Amino acid sequence: MSAPVLQVDGLVKHFPILGGLLQRRVGEVRAVDGVSFAIAKGETLGLVGESGCGKSTIGKTVLKLIEPTAGRILLGGEDVTKLKPGAMWQHRRHIQTIFQDPYSSMNPRLAAGTIVGEPLENYGITRGGETSERVAQLFQRVGLRPDAMRKYAHEFSGGQRQRLGIAKALSVNPELIVADEPVSALDVSVQAQVLNLLIDLQEEYGLAYLFISHDLAVMRHISHRIAVMYLGRIVELATKRTLFTQPLHPYTEALLSAATAPDPRRRRTRKRIVQGDVPSPARPPPGCHFHTRCPYAIAECKVTAPPLIEVAPGHHVACLRRPVGGGPQPLSVSG
Ligand SMILES: Nc1ncnc2c1ncn2[C@@H]1O[C@H](COP(=O)(O)OP(=O)(O)OP(=O)(O)O)[C@@H](O)[C@H]1O
Ligand SMILES: [Mg+2]
Q1: What's the CA-to-centroid distance between 96 and ligand 2, angstroms?
Q2: Tell me, what's the pLDDT at 82?
Q3: pLDDT at res. 326
Q4: Is 32 in the pocket of ligand 1 (CB under 6 A)?
C-alpha cells in the first residue's frame, strides 16, 4: 500500500488564555488534544462533532495556517511541521482549501476568471492564453458558464460562488483538499449539487478530502470514513457504514439518535442521552471528557482517559465500557 496522502500523528493544539493587566498566560484552551488519523488517495475522511470540539483547528494546522503545539503532520510521507519557510510555498500547492464562505477569500475587484487563473500563473503552471484556456476548462468542469469568467464574486449565488472556490482550489492540481463546512451556508438542494460535484471531482482526480462538518446528513453523503470528535479528541473512527449502523461510543450514539429519530416522541426521550452542555475546552473534565454527559459512565471514567482502540478491523473507539477483543458489549440503552 502506498503512503497515505495525509497522516496526522498525536496532534495537539493548545491556545494560551491571557489574563490580568500584564496579559500573562493564565491557562490554555485545549482545542486539539492528541489526534491521529490518516487519509488515503481518493478518500474522504469526515470530521464531525459539536461546535468548539476542535475540527477547524485541525484543518488549520493541516493547512499550516497555525502551528501545532505538538505532533506530526505528514503529507505524502513528508513531515510538514519541519518545512522551512521557502518550502512552504510549494507545499501550499499540494494542499488546498474550500471555505464555508468562499467570498471572504476572494478579491472583490477581480473578475472570476482572474481569481481562478491567479494560482496557475503564480505557480508558473500556465501563462497567458494557456491560463485562459485552462480557466475556461475549470469553469466548465465545475458547472459554471463561460461568461461567468467576466463576472465579479458578488454577482454569483452562494452555490455558484462555492463552485468558483472549488475551481480555484482545483486549478493547481492538489492532492488534498481541506473543506471546512463548505456547504453549511447553502440551501439543502444546492448542498447536494455541490457535494455531488466534489464526489465526481474526487473520482476523476483521485483527490483526498478532509471534510469538516457538524451535519451528519452531509457526512453521510460524502465521507468514506468518519471521525467523531468530542472536546479535542477523536472518540470514534470507522467507515461510514459501520458508524451509522453499529456506533459504539455513547457520544456517537447520542449524535446519531438526536439527528435521525423520525418520531418526535422518540426524539424527546432519546435526546436525554446527551445531558447538559459541552464543557469548556479550557477546563475539560478529567478522565474521559464525555463522562459528565454520559449515561453509562462508571467511576473509572472520571479518572482514566480511554485510549482510541481498534475493536474490529478499521473500527476505533475510545470508551472504557467497550471491551478490547471479544466484540462490543451491548449496552442497555433506554428510550
Ligand atoms: N485562535 C484561537 N485562540 C484561542 N482559542 C481558540 C482559537 N481558535 C479556536 N479556539 C478555541 O478552540 C476550540 C476549538 O475551536 P474550533 O474552531 O477548532 O472548533 P470547531 O469544532 O471548528 O467548532 P465549530 O463547529 O463552531 O466551527 C474552541 O474552544 C475555540 O474557542
Ligand atoms: Mg469550525
Answers
A1: 17
A2: 83
A3: 42
A4: no
Q: Which residues of the chain have pLDDT under 70?
A: 1, 260-275, 323-335
Task: Please tell me the distance from the alpha carbon of residue 66 to that of residue 56, in angstroms, as a whole number.
Answer: 11
Q: Are 231 and 202 in contact (CB under 8 A)?
A: no
Query: What is the C-alpha separation between 175 and 167, in angstroms, rounded?
Result: 14
Q: Does residue 54 have its Cβ closer than 6 Å to ligand 1?
A: yes
The structural domains of the chain, ordered by start, are: 6-94+174-324 (3.40.50.300)
Query: Residue 134 is placed in which grid cell?
Result: 485552462
* Nearest protein Cα to ligand 1, atom 18: 54
Residue 257, ligand 1, Cβ within 6 A: no
- What's the gap in Å between 13 CA and the centre of ligand 2? 14
Q: Whose CA is nearest to atom 5 of ligand 1?
A: 15
**Ligand 1 atom at shortest distance from the alpha carbon of 47:** 21
**Counting ligands in written order, which one lies closest to the CA of residue 58?**
1
The rounded distance, in Å, linking the Cα atoms of 75 and 77 is 5
Q: Is 238 in the pocket of ligand 1 (CB under 6 A)?
A: no
Pocket test for ligand 1, best of 53, 219, 255 (most atoms within 8 A of CB): 53
